[in-house]
Amino acid sequence: MSESSPHSNNRFPFYGPQGRLVLVDSALEAVSRGSTTIGIRTAKFAMISSQIKPTHPLIEPSEKIFSIDFHAGATGSGYIGDILQLIDTLRLEAQRHRLTYETPIDIDSLAKHLSTFLHNYTTYAVRPQAASIILSGVDKTGIQLYQVDPSGTFFRGSGFAIGQSSETALDVITKEYSADMTQEQAINLGKKAIEKALGEVPIVETGIVTHKEDGFHKLPLEKA
């Protein structure tokens, strides 16, 4: 019996002609069709916002901003089922750390844990998670903002955009970002970036994390 070619065995992640993982590229394509979602960080706070896509009038829209722990929150773009699984993964890791060490987990460790979880989906014979996550939080090193993609690749920064027309949204954020901007300015910039990307006034859900005792909290939903 001849040795099987990786191109003839569906149990393995295929590499494309340019050496890219085809299944991961498909997951990223799903993310690019998801809700326009952004994150903005300064030394004093981090803000995450996501478009709530219109649904059938009798169906309640899906939640888009999630509390991970009192000091951390996250949002995502892609398949909502995959987003929810990744949120549960983050919450479980945060709870495990708190029970074991009696301290809140640092945000870098959360991002690395999610990165490893996602990377395993590109290593073994399973479908990659079709979701990217923007993770915000505060720890002993300060305010943090991360983006974690389906491949397990993660970035730390001050501004991210994922989902539909994310390049347009990120361009708006890059041009108007200021390290000393206020929370209100950041919220308005997020709305402007999402509106510019979509070409319409969206319904947006927003969360903020600060150094204050209330840590991460969701803002009341503002409709278009």
Summarize the structure.
The protein is of the alpha+beta class and 224 residues long. It contains 5 helices and 10 strands, in the order αββββααββββααββ. The longest helix has 22 residues.
The assembly state of the depicted protein chains is single chain
Low-confidence stretches: 1-13
Number of helices: 5
Order of helices and strands: HEEEEHHEEEEHHEE
How many domains, in number, for the residues? 1
Helix content: 25-40%
Strand content: 25-35%
List the helices and strands and how they pair.
Layout: H1 22-32, E1 37-41, E2 45-51, E3 65-69, E4 72-78, H2 80-101, H3 107-123, E5 131-139, E6 142-148, E7 154-156, E8 159-162, H4 166-176, H5 183-198, E9 204-210, E10 216-218
Antiparallel strand pairs: 1-2, 1-8, 2-9, 3-4, 4-5, 5-6, 6-7, 9-10
